[in-house]
Amino acid sequence: MVSSKIFAAAALASIASAIDHQVKVGSGGNVYSPSTIPGVAVGDTVSFQFQGTVHNVVQSSFSSPCTPMDNGFSVPFQSSSDTFTVNVTTTDAIWFYCSYQNHCNLGMVGVINPGTGQTQGAFASAAKGATVSQPKSNSAVGGVLGSG
């Protein structure tokens, strides 16, 4: 009984200490701001806040920029003040891009928890020549879309 209370208290403390990392999408052009989000812990969230122009957020991999990752998160094109929130389940690097027109090729890419040698700048350079692919689903996958 005591151990279950300790476990419950630890779980609540973990939830209480979770941080929501906010990223503006399209504020000031075809950019994520910030485009690099370091130090995101398991249990934290990243909220992508759309700023009124047409963009989306699609998870990718470093080796295949501008291509949706199987079982990755994505949200359809947004042009409102909606927010797409992703729960972080790993401290590994999580790469993402905008699949609208040629935004990915122009450097609208980002990373959560970049690794050594795999920077947002290197990802943006690789994206310049990549073929931009759309996510398979036209609905939010791997996160929660809400008004914000």
Automatic annotation (TrEMBL):
CDD domains, sorted: Cupredoxin (cd00920)
Domain called Phytocyanin: residue spans: 41-108
Native source organism of the sequence: Microthyrium microscopicum
Keywords on record: Signal
GO molecular function, one term: electron transfer activity
Keyword field contains Signal: yes
PANTHER family: EXTRACELLULAR SERINE-RICH PROTEIN, SERINE-RICH PROTEIN, PUTATIVE-RELATED-RELATED
rRNA-binding keyword on record: no
Signal peptide: 1-18
Protein name: Phytocyanin domain-containing protein
